[in-house]
Specification:
Strand content: 35-45%
Distance between the termini: 12 Å
Shape: extended
Helix content: under 10%
Length: 147
């Protein structure tokens, strides 16, 4: 990546970042702010094909929290990263890209025979399944690291 925005407040381990510049709704439209949690599935970032971004690349979205200081030496350890989630680049344009959350969450549900079990006084059986999960409280200005 050549021209990806670099933050001065972050460690030198991987100094290349992009920024979240918008939200993309389920219909693929750009929106100013999400109306609900579902709009956090896709985000628009400020780097694209000219910055050598490719579809499928993995990303981490995060915000910078407070600066941490080593209690013994007093040296700055950098800023704590507040992780919003992981994802992938799903489409690119010349100077911007859309990223989509790859987070999942486990959802517990009652199995189909649950109603019959309740009526007959038997215990209800539950199952679990994985579902897609959105980025957590993503905001315009959050940082993106390619991983």
């Amino acid at each position: 990546m050549n021209d990806i925005t670099q933050s001065n407040n972050v460690t030198d381990l991987n100094p290349y970042y992009a920024k979240v510049i918008g939200f993309v709704d389920g219909a693929g439209n750009l929106v100013d702010k999400p109306e609900d949690e579902k709009s956090y599935y896709k985000l628009l970032i400020n780097v694209g094909e000219k910055d050598e971004v490719k579809t499928g690349e993995r990303i981490l979205v995060f915000a910078l929290g407070q600066e941490m200081v080593d209690p013994e030496s007093g040296d700055s350890l950098g800023c704590f990263e507040v992780v919003r989630g992981y994802g992938r680049v799903v489409s690119t344009q010349s100077r911007m890209s859309v990223i989509e959350s790859s987070r999942t969450k486990t959802v517990r549900f009652q199995k189909a025979q649950a109603i019959n079990a309740l009526i007959s006084g038997h215990s209800v059986e539950y199952g679990e399944r994985e579902e897609k999960a959105p980025f957590l409280n993503a905001m315009i200005g959050d940082l993106v690291r390619f991983i």
